[in-house]
Design goal:
Shape: globular
Oligomer: single chain
Radius of gyration: 19 Å
Number of domains: 1
Distance between the termini: 54 Å
Structural class: alpha/beta
Strand content: 15-25%
Number of helices: 11
């Protein structure tokens, strides 16, 4: 019952034009910022990532992050009613031909994505692909089954398919046997669990463990790897560049692709840090590296 009321409220709010939802975002920023939502995590992450910056500069990035975080909530809310025509105007995909051309070579594609900018809108890339060769979004089910079903539907709105993380390998093998192609969108900037850490690299001024699953799969199947670079042009408008990282992954050395991804993401964050998800506990295993390398 509670979720039904929540859905009705969200559905009605999503009818509001996005320009007015941004006004709501401006109002929401005040209680979100003052409430201190994960502020200790945000401040610690920013302080460690940019030790060269003064407190005044860090606070400016912090405020910009929370403002964008509120905008992000409104943009994702609006997804409920955004049409294909509207989303195509709001997120433009550049350099996409190089990735699509891999289909002509009989190869699927691995897409490195991150919690940077509006990653949910990236799914609209499927609108530019053949319907039988969509983006397969890798996800992990949410604990609340009602909210999970809600998000599952939104993420399929523009033709993308959802693949549970634990089912990914099975799905890739199945598609390959059937001679079907697709693009696999992999959000790869989360912190791996402690018992699955295989690769560390210096990232934003600190040793950081990185997920290497995208690279492992790319090398196993020899699927070309591309980086999804998302640039926010202004409120509600993005430019997404699909940039090649490695076209012959089977010929690379271990962790080479993961390292390239880390450097590209770091560059984006340094260029516009407010658009990364600083509230995520990305460095919760900070002391583990020192223990391992003592």
């Amino acid at each position: 019952m509670m979720f039904r009321l929540f859905y009705i409220l969200v559905w009605l709010l999503a009818l509001i034009p996005l320009r007015l939802l941004y006004c709501l975002s401006d109002l929401l920023f005040i209680p979100v910022y003052l409430s201190g939502y994960r502020k200790e995590v945000v401040r610690r992450n920013l302080r460690n990532a940019f030790p060269e910056k003064r407190v005044k500069e860090l606070r400016k990035i912090e405020r910009r992050f929370y403002r964008y975080f509120c905008d992000l909530l409104m943009e994702d809310l609006k997804l409920i009613h955004l049409s294909e025509k509207q989303i195509k105007k709001r997120i433009v995909f550049k350099n996409k031909d190089a990735a699509i051309e891999q289909y002509q070579l009989g190869k699927s594609v691995m897409l490195y994505t991150s919690h940077y900018g509006n990653w949910e809108w990236n799914a609209a890339f499927s609108l530019h692909l053949p319907k039988e060769r969509p983006v397969y979004q890798v996800y992990k089910s949410l604990k609340n089954r009602h909210f999970d079903k809600f998000m599952y539907g939104i993420r399929r709105k523009f033709g993308a398919e959802n693949v549970e993380k634990k089912d990914l390998m099975r799905k890739m093998i199945s598609l390959r046997k059937e001679g079907r192609l697709g693009m696999f969108g992999m959000i790869s900037d989360q912190s791996p669990s402690a018992n699955h850490i295989r690769y560390w690299t210096k990232f934003l001024n600190q040793y950081t463990p990185f997920l290497d699953g995208t690279e492992q799969l790319a090398r196993k199947f020899d699927y070309p790897v591309f980086y999804v670079r998302l640039v926010r042009k202004r409120r509600g408008y993005y430019e997404c560049q699909i940039e090649p990282i490695e076209l012959k992954p089977a010929e690379t050395t271990q962790f080479e692709i993961t390292e390239k991804y880390a450097r590209l993401l770091e560059q984006d964050i340094r260029n516009a840090p407010q658009y990364w998800l600083w509230s995520h506990r990305r460095w919760k295993y900070a002391g583990l590296y020192e223990q391992i390398h003592q």
